[in-house]
Fold this sequence. Notes:
The chain has 287 residues and is of the alpha+beta class. It has ten helices and ten strands. It has two domains: 4-81, Phosphorylase Kinase, domain 1 (2-Layer Sandwich), CATH 3.30.200; 85-285, Orthogonal Bundle (Transferase(Phosphotransferase), domain 1), CATH 1.10.510.10.
Amino acid sequence: MNKYEVLGxxxxxxxxxxxxxxxxxxxxxxxxxxxxxxEDDEIVRKTTLREVKILRMLQHExxxxxxxxxxxxxxxYLVFEYVEKNLLEILEQQPAxxxxxxxxxxxxxxxxxxxWCHEHNVVHRDIKPENLLINPDHSxxxxxxxxxxxxxxxxxxxxxxxVATRWYRAPELLLGDTAYGKAVxxxxxxxxxxxxxxxxxxxxxxxxxxxxxxxxxxxxPLTHEQTDMFLxxxxxxxxxxxxxxxxETLEKRYVGKLTKKALSFMKGLLxxxxxxxxxxxxxxxxx
Length: 287
């Protein structure tokens, strides 16, 4: 850490702390993620090394750049390019949502980042406003690959279901499906698009069951397969949903706020059935 001067704390999480630092030689400002656990914690070590491996593989202009990784006194430090703001902060400054042109710009860049991840068989699994960094020139960088996993046809069915901040979680994740795939990221992009449009989270559920209810209230009922999954999941034992056959719909929710084309794009991202959801290459074609 000797070549860096600490300027302040950017954020803290369960893993440790992110520091804003200056490289004493070059004067460049960087963000350094310092993990608090020492070598002893095997799970943290595995997660961190996986994150480093994934970031090294995924170099792209819309993904935050990992400059270096080093170890000091048993602690791991990751050095990233520094980006001043994240999308959550931008939404807090503009509570009524962003201009359509900016929504389009951010969503296009997010689709590019996710397409690159998916081309390399990486599912991010935690797309949310805090993990989208924004430069003054409106360039977007996806960050925080702590939850990301490599998905192959071999390991499908072995992924954990508890990931992603609840509001951005796809129905299949909420239902405990472990055979989910890249479509969970596309759902999250749809949620972000809604939030950027009017400044309000699209599906602000207060628990897992409430999250499923809030989604159906706008999007309509679960698919047959999802209903079976719901009934089989011990977490939801004895619970059921009211009649969901007359949902609010995205059309009503965003009337006058989205063009016909933007609305149809959003509906493609938010298909209840993951197999019918827009994939990343299609989303890029659709812009």
